[in-house]
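B., you asked whether I could sanity-check this one before it goes into the benchmark set. Here's the sequence:
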Amino acid sequence: MTIPQELEAKILRYFHVEKWRVGTIATQLGVHHATVDRVLSQAGLPKTARPHRASVVDPYLPFVVNTLEQYPRLTASRLYAMVRERGYPGGPDHFRHLIAMQRPRPQPEAYLRLRTLPGEQAQVDWAHFGQLTIGRATRSLMAFVMVLSYSRQVFLRFCLDAQMANFLRGHVAAFDAWNGVARVLLYDNLKSAVLERQGDAIRFHPTLLALAAHYRFEPRPVAVARGNEKGRVERAIRYVREAFFAARTWQDLDDLNAQAAAWCQGQAADRPCPEDRTLSVRAAFALEQPRLIALPDNPFASDEQVAVRVGKTPYVRFDRNDYSVPPTQVQRTLMVVASPTTVRVLAGAQVLAAHPRSYDQGAQIEDPAHLAELTARKRQARRHRGQDRLAQAAPSSRTLLIEAATRGDNLGSITAALLRLLDRYGAAELEAAIGEALARAVPHPNAVRLALEQRRARRDQPPPLAVALPPDHRVRDLVVQPHRLGDYDQLQTRGEDDNDRPD
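And here's what the prediction gave me:
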């Protein structure tokens, strides 16, 4: 803890001029004696020796010291239980304070300053920069950072997640920006890079290995808990936070990435190169770039590919949103291939749909052609259901519809009109009326309606009342066949025979 200079001056004056002891100075100034010792030590004076006061822990100190030498990570609570079993009468708080002074301190590790050759190594890492709200979705703002170890040239690209697709896109974009690839790429133990690690045995992600084979670089993870081995990218991320991202405004992710690219080629490239302070990063990169591995003729494919199952509705779910497909693809498994801007749905090599990508949540991205096709199919299905109902209730309706189709009439409107007449007059009357209309060679609902009215008038019956049926098509399309009344007559006859039998 830092103390005022005036207080330091008083401590030195009381000690040198007044010849006060350390305890007296501490009591008079209201500070701890360790503070007085520290001020005197900083002034070049040896620590004043004090007489040792006996403590209840003294008989147990050799046991504590020996135990800590063998088990330096043993907790103070466990040590306290051990000395309590051996007769220690003190409390745990004072014992914990004493153990803190006796515990051996690890020897600080010294590090070599690592130097790399031009074009030899680049370091890669992710950095989190908060969250973005897009519509109803909250997404993480991640920064993909790659830095060349020799020149310290930085590549920076912001993404909405740290998934494998954006990991690959960051590599491809960095290689394109530098027009070359370093021979070794150094990674932290990211899941996108290392799937499993047992000692020195490492299982890389197969997609990363495919990327390395395409660009001919060596992926190399740092040792566990050895973040200092990739200190260049760690310092680059800190530099990005302080010199680029702080207090920056942007319109959208594309605008932010455009500003990041300009910053990497501008301010970040004009700073001094740590390897050679006489050069800028731009000049050092100009020396390093010819030593990078040349790019292949074609870039690595970095689009996301996900197999999806289409349900009963013609949509596929991808990245929290639904994208429409042709209604003929329901109940099938398709492939979604997505770039940062486009979502394509494929069946084999055939592209069934292409939509602009949405980063919202719960949105429905639809192609009007898909909806129009679905609507047409539904209308056609309703017409077929109506025709099936008519064929069951009035078989002559099939002949009427065939003749109407020959004349070029609208079968949908004819079917709807006949269904309304079926609901009002019943199946038997409709069948008879259709027969009369066909006999007159007039296959039209108006002729059927006229025949129905004439039949009602001849029987001197009142107009039929419209029956309000439920909207469910399963109820409206239901055809009820009346039971034969002769069966009931047989039941009545059997009952009379049973009554005539003698008791």
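One thing to flag: The chain has a mean pLDDT of 84. Otherwise nothing jumped out at me.
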